[in-house]
Amino acid sequence: MLQDLESKASSGESFSHEEAERVLACADLVSVGTLGELARRARHGDVVTYGHVFEVAGDAVPSELGDAREVRITSRPVSVAAGCALVRAVVAASGDIPVTGFSATDLLDLVGGDHLALAEAARELCAAGLTGVAYFPVDRFEEPAELVRALRHGGLEVSRASVDRASTLAARLVCIERVAALQREVGALLAFAPLPRFDEIETPSTGYDDVRTIAVARLVCGEVPSLQVDWVLYGPKLAQVAIAYGANDIDNVPATDPLGLGPRRSPRIDIVRQISAAFATPSARNSRFERVS
C-alpha cells in the first residue's frame, strides 16, 4: 500500500505532511514498518545505540552509579536556588559522568514565563554543574525555538526533544512536525523521543498507534539524528519492536539492576540481547550520543 514511498524512505529524505498522514492512516503495519526501517538504515545502517541512565528522583543523591553514562534529575525543583543546590550535590556524587536535569516546562514556570529570566536561571544551573535539560516537551510550547535559544544562551544543552501528552495520532503528528521545524531553525537536537511520557487516562494509546508514531517520526524528522524509545516507560519488548519501525536509540536503560534478577537478566545484558534479536548491532553511547562501544 505504501510501496511508492519506499524509494523516498531509502534516500533519507523527509516526508511531507500529506505523506505522513498516509502512513498514519495505513492499516498495513508491515508496510509502515518497512518505511521506518528503510529510513533508519539509510541513516544508521544496522547500528542501534543505547544509553545507561541513572535517574535521580526527589533529592536523593546517588551512591552507586553502576553503568551510568548519564545522571538525570527527574524531579521538579521548588525554586531555581533549590535546583542549583540539588545539581551541586548530584554532580559531586557523579564524578565525571554528565548530569542533566529537569523539564524545560518546569524551569519556565519557575521564572514566570520570562525568557530572559530563563536564560539567567540556565546560567546558574550550568554554573552548578548541569550540562543540559532532561526533557524538552514540544507539545507544551508553541514557539520552542525561542526557548531553546534562551536555554542555550545560559549554557545548557537542549539535545533531546520529547512529548509530554499526545494521545491521538493527529496530536502526535503536530508534535513530530514541530520537532522537524525546530531542528531546521536551531539545529540543536541530537534525538527525539516521540512517544508521550504520560499516558492519558481516558484515551490511552495503543501499540498500533505507538509503532505508527515511531515510523512517522523517523520519516518526517530526517534532520534529527536519533529517534529513541524510553526503555523504562515503554518496556524492553516495545523498545525492541520500535527498531523495526525506525527507532535507532534506546534511552533510559537502567544503570543498575533495580529488580535484582542477576547478571543474565540485568539491564546491561538484556539491552544487548534485545537489540541483537531485532537483527541490529548494539552500541553503547554517552549522553552526547557519542558511541563508546
Description:
The chain is α/β, with parallel strands linked by helices. The chain has a single domain (3-284), classed as Aldolase class I (TIM Barrel, Alpha-Beta Barrel), CATH 3.20.20.70. It is 45% helix and 14% strand. The protein has helices at residues 6-11, 17-25, 29-44, 80-94, 104-110, 115-128, 144-153, 169-186, 207-220, 231-243, 267-277, and strands at residues 47-56, 70-73, 99-103, 132-135, 160-161, 191-192, 226-230, 249-254, 281-284. Strands 1, 2, 3, 4, 5, 6, 7, 8 and 9 form a 9-stranded parallel sheet that branches. Strand 5 (160-161), helix 8 (169-186) and strand 6 form a beta-alpha-beta unit. Helix 3 runs parallel beside helix 9, helix 4 (80-94) packs parallel to helix 6 and helix 8 runs parallel beside helix 9 (207-220). The mean pLDDT is 93.
Report Rg: 19 Å
Tell me, rounded to a whole number, the average pLDDT: 93
Q: Measure the end-to-end span.
A: 39 Å
Order of helices and strands: HHHEEHEHHEHEHEHEHEHE
Structural class, please?
A: alpha/beta
Percentage beta strand: 5-15%
Give the helix tally: 11
What is the count of β-strands? Answer: 9
CATH topology: TIM Barrel
Describe the global form: globular
Q: Would you identify the CATH architecture?
A: Alpha-Beta Barrel
The profile of the biggest β sheet is: 9 strands, parallel
Sequence stretches where pLDDT stays below 50 over 5 or more residues: none
Helix content: 40-55%
Give me the CATH superfamily. Aldolase class I
CATH class: Alpha Beta
Number of domains: 1
